[in-house]
Amino acid sequence: MEVRNCKNCGKMFNYIGKPICPGCEKALEEKFQVVKQFIKDNPNASINEVAEENEVSVNQIKRWVREERLMFSESSMVGLECESCGTMIRTGRFCEACKQKLGNSLNSLIEKPKPAEPERKKKEAARMRFLDN
Ligand SMILES: [Zn+2]
Ligand SMILES: [Zn+2]
User: Is residue 8 situated within a structural domain?
Assistant: First the structure.
């Protein structure tokens, strides 16, 4: 049995393929349910508002969206960029067009390097400023 430190609280726990301990995982799951309900009740809330109101990080919300566990409504201003072409999407990682394209060449997707991180961060920062104003 492998023992690791929880990425969230730092406690030692028996590693079973997840970076956080069972206690934190349970807390995160409860938070997820709260956030999900909040988005349902406030379909036009921005991702920053959702984060603030629920005391959860924007990155965590994005992670849930990428995992297709959360989805913002059609009328919402919130969007994520398709990881392939940059089109705004509501959930997941790719837009419908890219999903189809990628579906046709799934093997090349695995070989494909990730987009340069600094470039994406810059774009994200620019959008955050836009949302703040
Ligand atoms: Zn923990
Ligand atoms: Zn795309």
Answer: no
Q: How far is the CA of 119 from the centre of ligand 2 (A)?
A: 17
Tell me which residue range forms the domain holding 31. Answer: 24-132
The reported pLDDT for the residue numbered 102 is 85
Per-residue pLDDT at 124 = 59
Token pair for residue 84?
């392939």
Query: What is the band of 103 on the pLDDT scale with cuts at 50, 70, 90?
Result: confident
**How many angstroms is it from 66 CA to the middle of ligand 1?**
22
Residue written as token pair 């726990």? 13
CA-CA-CA-CA dihedral for 90, 91, 93, 96, to nearest 10: -70
34 — pLDDT class (breaks 50, 70, 90): very high
Q: Which residue has the higher pLDDT, 107 or 34?
A: 34
What separation in Å is there between the alpha carbon of 15 and the centre of ligand 1? 11
| Domain annotation covers residue 5 | no
Q: Give the total number of structural domains in the chain.
A: 1
In a domain, 39, yes or no: yes
Q: Are 97 and 79 in contact (CB under 8 A)?
A: no
